[in-house]
Fold each of these.
Amino acid sequence: MEKKIGSYETLFAISGNYSDEEYKAVLEKFVALVNDNATDVNVDEWGKKKLAYPINYITEGYYVLLTYKSEPSFPAELDRVFGITESVIRYMTTTKCEVAAKAEAAVAVEAPVEVEATEA
């Protein structure tokens, strides 16, 4: 049976109350987990940003975007690990829809249809 591989993006924020060494330790933990279970891994560190609103009295977070290809079961496991890690304050995993982007580019744009107004 053929394995299904999907493209995913995971954005997570580490609490802003940690030192640089602690950020690196948490980041290395998740990068190692993704490298063990996925391919084409790309890590984009956005750095420390001010949150739009406080989360549990935390006003800053260290943001990281991970893009990777894996089996569909892995993102659920990654979300489970994020949920039990105290230093991660927010996380979100989305599926990248590459097929839809190609199909959308291939669709021809139709001319707008004019509608005449009638008086009643």
Amino acid sequence: MPNRDSNYWVKKLKLEPHPEGGWFKEVYRSKETIDDSALPGRFTGSRNYSTAIYYLLEEGDYSAFHRIQSDELWHFYDGDDLEIIEITPPGVLTKHILGIGTSLKALPQITIAAKSWFAARPLGQYTLTGCTVSPGFDFQDFEMASRQTLLSEFPQHKGIIERLCRE
């Protein structure tokens, strides 16, 4: 078995830098679409049924707070556990642990609800995950958090917001 590290996965999977931090590659986009008339009003235009990516974060990097308009399922593949911090629209903060490591809280799959703000950071050298989005991901549905906006909306979570926002 090859010595797997983050560089191994970046090369093997042909990952590219992601705007929210880390590395990614889209590996699935359903050919069929859902007409916008059948979708909730938060969507503008039709969407693919589902999309999936590989996503990798390395030690010291993080996925900055962002949100999308669909539910997102995270799947653990390799490396160390990943902490995913979710802030729901009412302001409830949950720290999820994605992985199969020693933490009793670790789960190999978790779901982040549509419209929740979320960020992630590896709890070791790297974490390779997969993310499945339905209705499918579209950058029109992606919103990177402004630190000031999140702090004004959720001042009770100041510490984590300051650590995991890029602006």
Amino acid sequence: MVWLTALSACSTLPGSNARLGPASNTLEASPTDRVWSGRFAIEGSPDLAPASGRFTLERYATRRRLDLLGPLGQVLARLDMSAEGARLTRADGQIELAEDANELMTRALGWRLPVTQMERWLDGEFALVTERASDGTPRSAIDSEWRIRIDPPRRWAFEWPVDSNPSPALMPERRVRVRLLLDP
């Protein structure tokens, strides 16, 4: 809960023009533009305090944005990603930069979060599909050391690491489970 408290020190971040378009005031959308939103819950090993709230993941041609909100709607953090790198803005205005968004989130939160892979997964793209529904849609997959479980149309679960019996190098305190419930 420490990271949740630290991230939610204030409740507002600068506004976003992201819904207007990828770079400006245009209302045109490209085929790659997409927005996902819903609820999230994160849990893990005994030393990882569970967290929950709402999220919005926005994808545009040249950038991505992930907003995390607490259970009461307070802004926890905003992650902006582009070819230039990643920028995490905390609710208190503190900014952290890194070349890789996953690395930045691990450093900021203290545990893994598959931010760069989530949009691909939500689009149905996986390295290895391990189970399909009768209509051929993926029900479970493995990608980037994460096990993905899909209960269409709105429930998703990501678990790291994939191996349920990890080597001694992967201690139980490093296990993470993320659940999403997408908005309709």
Amino acid sequence: MIMQRDVTGLRTAVRIMAIDYGTKRLGVAISDPGCTMAHPLKTVAVHADGSHMDELLKITTDYEVKRVIVGLPLNMDGSVSEIAREVMSWAQNLEIFLDLPVEFFDERLSSFDAHELLMAHQVRGRKRRKVVDKIAASLILKEYLDTHGS
């Protein structure tokens, strides 16, 4: 379980939010308070006016999120791709806007895995497009929790 100390020195559980970045949609997943499970939460449409950032802020407030994980799309050889540079720049702005720590986590195959999972469950077409991003975010978060959990 991922814990932090509150102002009294007591250890408290934290919630973590994961984001699967896209230029049109952001997949969002949230952990349980004990950070043992990842739940796909929603897909947030990206708007030119930046209103999607307000939606992310509302999620972090409503769920009392203490940390944000952003999937980093590295190349298959582990090198930093052009889109990864775009994600890193966006995440810097996100960290300032949310006033929360933002970490990156390798997400090379999360969207592919999400599509495979949905195909296995016979989710097709428009319905798949509506959920694939939040499923990808939950896969990123699950792997992060498995890697960083105690």
